[in-house]
């Protein structure tokens, strides 16, 4: 039993060493984004029920590293402040599917192709979802009351958010405090959970498991879709799991399906979409994500095959690379920052969601 624990811990530590510097870089970039991009500008561009507003919502959502919990009140806040139904739905898809933190960890654990394809696929998926929901008659999309979740409070009113914008230095400080405080508190635990799951898969699952039991390409795409839809997992936490599954023989396309469907669809999100947008919009939301994920997964496999790129050659060195002092320091620092958020009184009552909703 002790050998198993030590083996899993060793695998988890190796994954953490490879990903921690990029995770910290991603959160630092998040703090800059928070400080430099006025949130009120996002709302100002999403009001019209048009193709342009959906495209902007998808684009604005791509770099934002909010979890599914945090994006729900943010999207509802946008809708209440005048954003179109399609734009709100597009924002609800693009935000959890990717972000600057998940892009950074994708570069660390996967390869340049997946690093590029992941946010592009998220953008297109969100855009398709928003455009289809905009086609629904207004009666089919009926905003309803959304109860406060255990993680997020309801968004503040418009009067509560009309405050003067602080100076740049203060915004930079607040941005980093948000990134390494509230946001890391929301995502950090899930990231470590994903690393633990990845370490367990690495230790227990044979290297040829996927090719032996999931040899059918289309079957593997469907299975990863079925696995991804109901579970709650953030974009960063899903990345080490996808990387390990690829090492075990899963196709890049099937891994992409998991990376797209997992963060954007879960029981909590679908419940809110149903209550806030209605039954028809919920069906479109789920169907659009499923179809786009499968399509992009299939096309990605074709690209790797035609281009003759072996993703294992990029992923494999991560498993056997020597750890540098910088990686060790980054890993320890990340563990400390995440652990600090679990101390009594360290987490704010609104988990940072009120800050997200302040746009």
Describe this structure as you would to a colleague.
The protein contains 18 helices and no strands. By secondary structure, it is an all-alpha fold. The chain has one domain (2-357). Helix 4 (68-80) runs parallel beside helix 14, helix 6 (100-109) runs antiparallel to helix 7 (112-134) and helix 14 (267-277) packs across helix 15 (279-307). The longest helix has 37 residues, at 168-204. The chain is globular. The N and C termini lie far apart (50 Å). The model is unreliable at 144-162 and 348-359 (pLDDT under 50).
* Radius of gyration over C-alpha positions, nearest whole angstrom: 20 Å
Biggest β-sheet description: none
Shape: globular
Unreliable spans = 144-162, 348-359
Number of DSSP-assigned strands: 0
């Amino acid at each position: 039993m002790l050998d198993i624990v030590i083996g899993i811990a060793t695998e988890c530590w190796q994954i953490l060493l490879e990903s921690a510097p990029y995770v910290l870089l991603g959160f630092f970039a998040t703090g800059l984004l928070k400080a430099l991009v006025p949130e009120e500008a996002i709302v100002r561009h999403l009001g019209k029920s048009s193709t342009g507003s959906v495209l902007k919502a998808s684009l604005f959502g791509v770099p934002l590293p909010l979890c599914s919990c945090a994006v729900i009140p943010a999207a509802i806040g946008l809708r209440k402040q005048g954003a179109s139904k399609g734009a709100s739905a597009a924002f609800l898809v693009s935000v959890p599917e990717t972000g600057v933190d998940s892009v950074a960890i994708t570069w660390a654990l996967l390869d340049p192709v997946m690093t590029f394809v992941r946010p592009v696929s998220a953008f297109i998926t969100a855009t398709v979802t928003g455009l289809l929901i905009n086609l629904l008659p207004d009666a089919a999309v009926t905003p309803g009351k959304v109860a406060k979740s255990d993680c997020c409070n309801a968004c503040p009113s418009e009067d509560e958010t009309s405050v003067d914008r602080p100076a740049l230095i203060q915004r930079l400080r607040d941005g980093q405090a948000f990134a390494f405080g509230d946001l890391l508190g929301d995502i950090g635990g899930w990231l470590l959970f994903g690393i633990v799951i990845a370490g367990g898969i690495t230790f227990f699952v044979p290297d040829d498991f996927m090719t032996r039991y999931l040899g059918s390409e289309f079957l593997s795409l469907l299975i990863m879709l079925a696995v991804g839809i109901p579970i709650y997992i953030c974009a960063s936490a899903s990345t080490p799991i996808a990387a390990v599954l690829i090492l075990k023989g899963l196709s890049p396309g099937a891994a992409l399906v998991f990376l797209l469907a997992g963060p954007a669809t879960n029981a909590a999100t679908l419940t809110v979409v149903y209550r806030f947008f209605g039954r028809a919009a919920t069906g479109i939301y789920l169907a659009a994500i499923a179809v786009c994920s499968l399509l992009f997964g299939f096309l990605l496999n074709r690209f790797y095959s035609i281009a003759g790129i072996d993703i294992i050659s990029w992923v494999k060195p991560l498993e056997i690379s020597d750890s540098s002092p910088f990686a060790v320091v980054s890993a320890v620092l990340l563990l400390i920052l995440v652990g600090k958020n679990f101390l009594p009184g360290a987490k704010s009552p609104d988990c940072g969601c009120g800050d997200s909703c302040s746009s």
